[in-house]
Amino acid sequence: MSHVTLSVDQVRDLAARCLAGNGCDDANAAAVADTITRAEADGCASHGLFRLPGYVASLRSGKVNGAARPRVEAIAPAVLRVDGDGGYAPLAHERSREPIAAMARESGVAAVALVNTHHFAALWAEVEPLAEMGLVAMAMTAYKPAMAPFGAREPLFGTNPMAFGFPRGGGAPPMVFDQASAAMARGEVMIAARDGHDLPPGVGLDRDGKPSTDPNAVLEGVMLPFGGYKGSAIAMMVELLCAGLIGERFSFEAAQADNNDGGPPRGGEFILAMDPDRFGDASWHDHAETFFARYAALDGARLPGARRHAKRAKLARSGVRVPADLHDRIQALCAGPA
Ligand code: NDP
């Protein structure tokens, strides 16, 4: 497969131009382009430019509001409701970040119900900025059914990712993990199908319910949770927080309402931010660092996020390799609908 190499700034420009050419206003195009760029810059191809054709499809079909103006409202002392106005999630994240931080500093905790939005991205982009602001943060979102509950062969859950961030001292980046509750993110399965790679065992079943390592067979069949019934329970929790608690669509409801244009369905996101200075231990920072020091001393262990940060440093110098056919496709999409 041939590639083109783009600088991080070129990725951002390309993504913003493509989104603007297909119905996003400047604010939405810049916010989504930033999310795409951060994925590429951290070596996460499955949530970078690879997603742009899906974003464009949902703009062209009219499913997503490219001129969304998210509204942020405090509906309880520690609950913010953010209405995404039918747009993509990144602008809602940008507009709600300061209010979330202010509420967490005031109340100790801020729970966010993000509704009426379309999420198509990696979740660390939500929690990392909050952790950089000194907050402990969690985020989770659902999608459309792609994964079976443990023991079943029919999809009910999205791949339902969850991210967690904890602030660090001494100039270290916050500890952030971000993981699907599926054995592998669906985007990674799609990349394996595109690139002709087998999957590791345990990722999914084919359409007959038999275990398969063929990514195309798993995409036609069903994905499995990580860790058996334990990952299945986490995926269920994500559905209940992102739909049951906040009044948005469960994955199965999102699928029923979706037009299947290739872009993200409407759904919800649950975010929790906590101010560690309000939990009663003035030495929390130093205490947590003793834990991280123990962790770092263990042979073979590395912190989640370490690979991403290493990639960030490397790709900032080398640029990002993008498959040439994807680059050509995006260039063609920039011209807008025929
Ligand atoms: P991975 O399995 O690749 O990684 C999950 C986490 O584990 C990362 O934080 C990773 O850190 C960490 N990790 C991996 N290997 C190790 C190791 N050896 N030691 C310590 N930590 C490790 O991610 P997934 O495939 O589960 O998810 C990929 C992305 O897809 C996520 O960003 C997720 O948000 C996104 N996604 C989005 C969905 C949506 O609907 N919007 C749906 C599902 C997934 P590191 O990155 O440094 O390797």
Structural summary, described in words:
The protein is of the alpha+beta class and 338 residues long. The protein folds into 2 domains: 3-182 and 225-333, Malate/L-lactate/L-sulpholactate dehydrogenase, NADPH binding domain (Ribosomal Protein S8, Chain: A, domain 1, 2-Layer Sandwich), CATH 3.30.1370.60; 183-224, Wheat Germ Agglutinin (Isolectin 2), domain 1. Helices cover 43% and strands 19% of the residues. It is built from 12 helices and 12 strands. It has helices at 8-20, 26-41, 52-60, 89-107, 124-132, 186-195, 215-220, 229-245, 251-257, 284-297, 306-318, 324-334, and strands at residues 3-6, 71-76, 79-88, 109-118, 136-141, 162-166, 175-179, 204-205, 211-212, 222-223, 266-274, 320-323. The strands form 3 sheets. A 7-stranded mixed beta sheet has the order 2-3-4-11-5-6-7, with helices on both faces. A 3-stranded antiparallel beta sheet has the order 9-8-10. Strand 3, helix 4 (89-107) and strand 4 form a beta-alpha-beta unit. Helix 1 crosses helix 12 (324-334). The longest helix has 19 residues, at 89-107. 45% of the residues are buried. The model has no long low-confidence stretch (mean pLDDT 97). The protein binds NADPH dihydro-nicotinamide-adenine-dinucleotide phosphate. NADPH dihydro-nicotinamide-adenine-dinucleotide phosphate binds at residues 47, 119, 121-124, 141, 143, 158-159, 161, 177-180, 184-185, 187-188, 302, 304-308.
